[in-house]
Amino acid sequence: MRNGGVISGVRVAHDRATVDEIASASTDDVRSAVESLLARDGVSEAFALQTCNRAEAYVVTDAQAVGRRALDDFAPDVRDAAVVDTNHEQSLRHLMRVAAGLESLVLGEDQILGQLKRAFEEARSVGGIGRMLDDAVTKAIHVGERARTETAINEGAVSLGSAAVRLAESETAVAGQTALVVGAGEMGTLAAKSLAAAGVDELLVANRTVPHAEHVAAEIEESTPELSARAVPLAAVSDAVADASVVVSATGSPDYVLSPAHLDTGSETTLIDLAQPRDVDPAVAEVPGVSLHDIDGLESVTEETRARRREAADRVESMIDDEFERLLDAFKRKRADRAISGMYEAAERVKQREVDTALSKLDAQGELTDEQRETVSALADALVGQLLSAPTKSLREAAVEDDWDTIQTAMTLFDPDFGGADASTDAPSGPREGMPENLPDEIPEDADVPRHVVESLADD
């Protein structure tokens, strides 16, 4: 693709959508989501992020309208009010906010940063990441890491697992009780550690793959020797539920793993479903003695943590403002440099032709020495450099001021094929609305630009 393109995004997240709507917008895995996006007309790059709290997709296309069309059917079964579309700049800023934990249900939680990194690598593995998304997501990850090392945004309850335990503690005594965690993945492990920290007497870990559950149980016992932890197969979950007063479920199963039959034990049970899609059949809420909560029910618990972290969040917002402007400046400079590169390439071709002609004529008048040839070439280089110095400065200033018409004109003058016959139709509709939609990324690696010109650009 000759131009840099623009990013278009769409999301269904916990702030507007229910757990079921997020599940509806999600696919089986990030790779398949990215591959599907790449197969759509006009899409050159693609990225997807799917967690229990959000399903998001991003594409890079030549024009914003093309990106919108590519994402039209992202969540066909979700209410319009729960689907959020973002243009280029909105997408850049949102990715930074996600990485920093500002968009999480538990403000500042750490888990999202690791999820973003894994999704980034998954997208890269199927060819979804090019120069535009590489810059965007890498910057978001950098912001997320800065937020956690330079502020207190992640102090207190830092995961859905710890928030779930706080919710359980608001309803029943957790310390000294038996608790069950269904699922031995990342979320289940976080919940298990939070229950151990809350002082449960016995912890059961159920999982379809028993060795995984054994690993989690062993890790918990090692860190909390006074606690008894053991693994149980998922097939024996009914017996485990009967022994537990607190149950946290967080598997990746596409089907329910807990039904009313599992919970019909006659005992009091606080059950928290952290899975997406749901692990627990909603009919369980009708079982006597069972108090059922899902992710949507954690809002009240996380509000306390959110209040304590608001001061840190303000600092992170300022950090994002600074990093956002740096990213936009970098994008602008790359596009200006491509225009400058084209200008120097065109000038270099003319200069070399005229130098060759002049040297041939001088040779005809008497053989030139190598030193004389170098003098002629140096004179030509100096003339080109001085003549293009002012236009180079103007193009850089045009990029800073979002004057893409000036840059496009320069590209068209020095490359008549630039942008095609209808390039003018892709011009941005207003200042700072997305990035320029028909300007190349950066100085190409194979550009025929003299070394002294490249070095001078780098020094500017």
Quaternary state of the chains = single chain
SSE order in H/E notation?
Answer: EHHEEHEHHHHEHEHEHEHEEHHHH
Count of spatially separate domains: 3
Overall pLDDT: 84
**Terminus-to-terminus distance:** 27 Å
Query: What is the CATH architecture annotation of the largest domain?
Result: 2-Layer Sandwich
The helix content is 40-55%
Most strands sheet: 6 strands, parallel
Counting DSSP H or I runs of 4 or more residues, the number of helices is: 15
Question: How would you describe this structure in keywords?
Answer:
single chain; 460 residues; alpha/beta; Beta Polymerase, domain 2; Rossmann fold; 6-stranded parallel β-sheet; 4-stranded antiparallel β-sheet; elongated
In short:
With 460 residues, this protein is an alpha/beta fold. It has 15 helices and ten strands.
What does this structure look like?
With 460 residues, the chain is of the alpha/beta class. The protein folds into three domains: 6-156, Beta Polymerase, domain 2 (2-Layer Sandwich), CATH 3.30.460.30; 160-301, NAD(P)-binding Rossmann-like Domain (Rossmann fold), CATH 3.40.50.720; 326-459, no CATH class. It has 15 helices and ten strands. The strands form two sheets. A six-stranded parallel beta sheet has the order 7-6-5-8-9-10, with helices on both faces. Strands 2-3-1-4 form a four-stranded antiparallel beta sheet. β5 (178-182), α8 and β6 (202-207) form a beta-alpha-beta unit. It is elongated. Mean pLDDT is 84; it is low at 418-460.
